[in-house]
Design a protein that fits this description.
The protein has 148 residues and is α+β, with helices and mostly antiparallel strands. It has one domain. It is 62% helix and 12% strand. The chain has four helices and three strands; from the N terminus they run αββααβα. The protein has a three-stranded antiparallel beta sheet with strand order 1-2-3.
């Protein structure tokens, strides 16, 4: 992937802009229906995934920083497969976006509600895209190693 810093920056900026918009335009307990199956609803998530560990904000900030540092080091040192790199970049974008929220606000702004998952944000989408890329890369690598 060319220009990873630019792509990572763009992902973080889009995440932060959408969260700023949600904070400015949405109110608590008042969902806005966008289309069938999609609503915007303002939620402050003080924990990790699904609100878990909400009483450990400081630990979550430190863990987030370790994850970001670990991914950067791992990419720099080891990873050269394009799909794995893309996966790590997506996870990095999401971790940075949610990390900024925790560091600045003390909570993560969530606003996308599709009713079958807890309310989430763009950073969460990026993290999940990264996980999908990493799983596909692992499956492909496993398949390629068995073929030889």
């Amino acid at each position: 992937m060319k220009w990873p810093v630019l792509w990572i920056g763009m992902g973080v900026v889009v995440d932060q802009l959408t969260k700023a918009y949600a904070q400015a335009e949405l109110t608590f307990f008042s969902a806005v229906t966008v289309c069938k199956g999609l609503r915007f609803q303002l939620v402050h998530n003080y924990g990790a995934a699904y609100g878990l560990f909400h009483q450990y904000t400081g630990v979550l900030v430190a863990l987030n920083a370790c994850i970001i540092g670990g991914i950067i080091w791992y990419l720099w040192r080891y990873y050269h497969r394009p799909l794995a790199q893309a996966g790590f970049y997506f996870v990095l974008m999401g971790a940075m976006g949610n990390g900024i929220d925790r560091l600045v606000r003390g909570y993560v702004v969530d606003f996308i509600d599709i009713r079958i998952f807890p309310v989430f944000n763009i950073a969460d989408v990026l993290i999940n895209l990264g996980a999908i890329c990493l799983i596909l890369d692992a499956l492909r690598t496993n398949r390629d190693s068995r073929a030889t």
